[in-house]
Amino acid sequence: MNKTGIDNSYGSFLSNIRIPIWLTIAAVVLFILVLAFTVNHARERDIVEQFSQQQRAIASGTAAGIEDLISSVEKSMIILSRLPCVTGVLPETTRQSIKVIYDNLDGKVEFIAVKDINGVVTAKYPSSIFEEITDESLKVAPYFQEIRKTGETYIGDLHLMREGETEDKVQSVIVAVPKYDTRNNFSGVVFTSLSLSAIIDRYIKATSDISGCGWIIDNNGAILVRPDKIHACMEPETLGNTQTVDGVPLKDVLAEGKEGYNECMLTTEGKKTKSIIAYAPVNAGSGRWFVAITTPYNKIVLLARKGFLNIIFWALGLIIVVIITGISITYLGVRRLRLEEELKRLREREGWQEKLLREYKTTEGIIAGSPIPTFVLNREHRVILWNRACSELTGIQAEDMIGTDNHSVPFYKKKRPALADIIVDHNTDALKKYYSTKNIQKSATVKGAYEARDYIGNLGGKDRHIYFLAAPIYDGKGEIIAAIETIQDVTPQKKLEQKFYESQKLAAIGQLSAGIAHEVRNPLSSIKMSLQILEKRLKPEGNDSKRFKIARREVEHLEQLVNDILIYAKPSEPLKKPEILHNILSHVLAMTEKSVLDKHIRVEMDIAHDLPPLMVDSAMLEQAFLNVCRNAIDAMDDRGVISISAWKSDGRIFVEFRDNGCGIPGEDMPHIFNPFFTKKKYGTGLGLTQIKKIIDLHRGTIKVSSNEGKGTSVVMTFPIKMSHQKG
User: Measured by CB atoms within 10 angstroms of the end CB, which terminus of the chain is less buried, N or C?
Assistant: First the structure.
């Protein structure tokens, strides 16, 4: 069967199964939606029931709190009515007692007053509030006649009319108790008005903030106390005519005097809104009030409806999954063949990738283990390889460098293009800018590579001469994808070159100096001898005698210079034999005794007693020590100090000359052993050169350290082993 036949059969198969698949999907969708709505309705009813019971408990607690408030005020009034000053009708004392009780109630009541048996107010506090309340308000209240008739406490409503008001009345709660005289006869009442603001602030507003709108209503649904307009959730005049969803008037429900809750339709902003009303009775005295808490039905079930929306969302997700699953099953057969082919190609590709990975790991391992410091940059100038040798050279570990562009910082202390950066960008302008003075040149062995030399200070804790070589890394298309750079420390080779050039220079200077010295030495001898003969014959006096002395001194200076040059240019091999170091130093001090005394210099010696004999040429060593002492004497003013010490350590003998003279400037330290380098007026510049030559001939070392203005230290060492072997 050909390919066309297969496609036709597959299309026929899809047309046959399309209707059953979509019917199944539609049935599943319908079932999921019905289930979701059913579950949501049940959850809403449960939530409303639980919330209503919770609101009833809150209303009951609020009612109990109001009852406690009224009870505490009643007890205070009873206590006040039994005070002797009240029963004996002493107005001023009674007023003070009323003030104490009023302050103790802390704003719970508006005022406290006392009426006599005729209903006349005999004491009151505070007086200011009675200036606002009309007398008619207190006369029309039935509490006085009710107490006189029953002799019991009266608790009920009180309408107080303010001065200047004609319609609006302030609804209050009055608590009145009888008072009796000493013969236990009725003598009047003590009464108070509970502060409406105290009830609102302490109970109603708090209830409104937590649970919904809070109200205090009477048996007929008339509102006695309600929160401010911010907390108002329905029109007050509609509450008395409210009916439950079952059609029962709310006032009939309240007439039973029990706590409970009902669903009612309340008018809010001109619209009928389904709400939950939870109520509880406030039983106090002859009146009965109710605490009512109303909450819109939509507010209660809001969370449940959000959950329902989530269920619908997940149901739609499930439907989509079902659809996708059906489509996937339909095309599974065709996709299987394609996947098998793709899998075959992936396996081939994986084989190539493994081969490339092995080659990459091999190359990376070779570079990482190479003793030559090496790093590799990618196209973004980020370090992708920093081998162990590079870490040892720079002191920076690979984990701190890989992935960054800080590869130039270890060498130049700041970011700037390295050779590898310039090769990656093929930037010839940067090459000229940064490496024109670094002996930059193309590599003769690597295509596209450049090499340069530079002196780097404090690289890995040392000053080094570095040789850089950077080369590009190409991809299969011949494009640069990275660059590799190697760094070699050529400081030892550079030092060898410098020593070689120095030795050639010194050899040339020595040959030239020796030739000149030989030619000058004989004429100087003749001039010196002639001066001596003329001085004896002429016997000059005055200025002539001074001129002869100056000429003789200058000839002697030139003769000393010639001798120094000959010693430097052609030093003879030392005639070594065992010598005591203390004897050599004592002889040197004897030769410098006059100069030491002239400048009043103090010489301190500290020579170890266990020093073995040295195998040295005593004359040469005396010359070297003598030159050091003369330099120290010349560097000091009067009353200086020269310290000479000697000790042995680590198979060597150490000899140190230390003075507290002017010291050597730091810029002169690198040149002090160069021939003819001197800052003295009459110096030859060969003193330290001779000393180093003599020390080298004895296989010793010399180190000079100086602090300008504080003094100089010269330390020479000689091997003990050589001394014993030849001794």
Answer: N
